[in-house]
Amino acid sequence: MPAHPPTAEILAIGNELLLGEVVDTNTAWLCRFFTGLGGKVQRAVVLPDEVEAIAAELQGALRRAPALVFTTGGLGPTEDDRTLAAVAMATGRPLEEHPEALRMVAARYRELAAAGFVAEPDLTPPRRKMAMLPRGAIPLANPVGAAPGVLLPLERTLLVCLPGVPEEMKAIVQSSLAPHLQARLGRAGFAELRLLTDCGDESRLAPLLGEVGRAFPHVYIKSRARAFGPQVRIQIYLSAAAPTPEEAQALVEEAGRHLEGRLAEAGVSAERLPAM
Amino acid sequence: MPAHPPTAEILAIGNELLLGEVVDTNTAWLCRFFTGLGGKVQRAVVLPDEVEAIAAELQGALRRAPALVFTTGGLGPTEDDRTLAAVAMATGRPLEEHPEALRMVAARYRELAAAGFVAEPDLTPPRRKMAMLPRGAIPLANPVGAAPGVLLPLERTLLVCLPGVPEEMKAIVQSSLAPHLQARLGRAGFAELRLLTDCGDESRLAPLLGEVGRAFPHVYIKSRARAFGPQVRIQIYLSAAAPTPEEAQALVEEAGRHLEGRLAEAGVSAERLPAM
């Protein structure tokens, strides 16, 4: 069993992050996810697409031996996607074509070609590159994009490499990675919901939030004032962890509907916000 | 003169970041800012409010000797604001009450008390704490909040400690820090502007953007498709660097107005987006 709370580190990889062209929202999502499962993220780093820099950072993280290390970014087909080369360097494992990963990539390009998104489904060298995994790795099916995630069980740490596109990253964590996390952490389900009210008075909402919190003790509920110009509106955040993603989703959904009902009775209107 | 391009590292400090409750937008802004001035951010780290973790990371950064190290967060009045204690530990300099910093903090609380935002203007111990700087440091006036920024010139690196609240962080960089950066980098002014068009066809906008780019060779212009549900709209980003913040603002403003005029002639409507 891992230490309690199990710890994690995150490496967010991509030149676009260090140019500031893209704000890294993946790290915050993984932090909420892992905290929700009862873990503790102790450190996160943003790195350029440079094999040596990534490998050095990975070696440092593996020396500290957290239960998990997540990487995001650098799994795609292009030359500057170098995360797995860095994993190979840091762990001394060769990159090898993984038959199951290759089947995943091939199936995805057949779908994309059938839908007209790509001209042909051929496994060109850049596409095959996405199936070159460090020896001992397990591919994680990507329900949204082409590059599989990669799970590499190491002596003291589970290394999880995820794509940088947020929708792909989240989908892999919540589907393909879930059974592995469940085996290791006892739970793998996490769900969240945000409501934006038209009410600016936190003291008016506090009793309702307290009541819903007591009715759903496994749901985390937090309110926060947000400024919209001179107007202040309270935003409510709900999250839940459970053994499976489906259970977590059902829990947060039930608490959210209950809260929406109580808000409506109190004359407060609330709209759901898109996922962060 | 610093190496070209001058390099920087960023340490974003705060438990709320590693819980995922707050998405760190400061790092991306500092990356755009420093890239805009002709520099290169080589690494960014997110750390908890723990003196030892921050001090160890600072020592690592100072060994790599980038031209600048920025920290954000942990400058406030409370016990868990520990950045300067970590700077003291990492650099072997004691924390001392800085008379000019104390005057800044006192003046701010007199203003806040006069405006009714705080009950009294007294320099309580938590408020005095914000004027305890590492020996040799220069306080940077904070035009928005209470905690001064801190500039510590070290042998090979300029260490800049900034508050975590984005508005305070940006205001200090663009006012109080500007003369110091100008002395070291030759320029300190950076400004940006975002326009969201109602047009989804990048090929239609490309000639206009090319024309404005040729008219304003010192303004960086980039377009990016953004999905709004099934609809795609092109967002245009402009940024400029100049010796001073005022010159950069004037440059990006002039290019922005020129672009807005050309878009209007082409029948494309565009709205300005709030600062990132």
Any overview of this molecule?
- 2 copies of one chain form a homodimer.
- The first copy, chain A, is an alpha/beta fold.
- Chain A has 2 domains: 7-186, MoaB/Mog-like domain (Molybdenum Cofactor Biosythetic Enzyme, Chain A, 3-Layer(aba) Sandwich), CATH 3.40.980; 190-267, Alpha-Beta Plaits (2-Layer Sandwich).
- In chain A, 40% of the residues lie in helices and 27% in strands.
- Chain A has helices spanning 15-18, 26-36, 51-64, 83-91, 99-114, 125-129, 166-174, 178-185, 202-215, 245-265; strands at 7-13, 40-47, 68-72, 95-97, 132-134, 138-140, 149-153, 158-162, 189-197, 219-228, 231-242, 270-273.
- In chain A, strand 10 and strand 11 (231-242) form a beta hairpin.
- The first copy, chain A, is elongated.
- Strand 2 (40-47) of chain A pairs antiparallel with strand 2 of chain B.
- Chains A, B: Pfam families: MoCF_biosynth.
- Chains A, B: This is Molybdenum cofactor synthesis domain-containing protein.
- Chains A, B: Residues 9-184 form the MoaB/Mog domain.
Q: Top keywords for this entry?
A:
homodimer, 276 residues, alpha/beta, Molybdenum Cofactor Biosythetic Enzyme, Chain A, Alpha-Beta Plaits, six-stranded mixed β-sheet, four-stranded antiparallel β-sheet, 12 strands, MoaB/Mog-like_dom_sf (chains A, B), Molybdenum cofactor synthesis domain-containing protein (chains A, B), CinA (chains A, B)
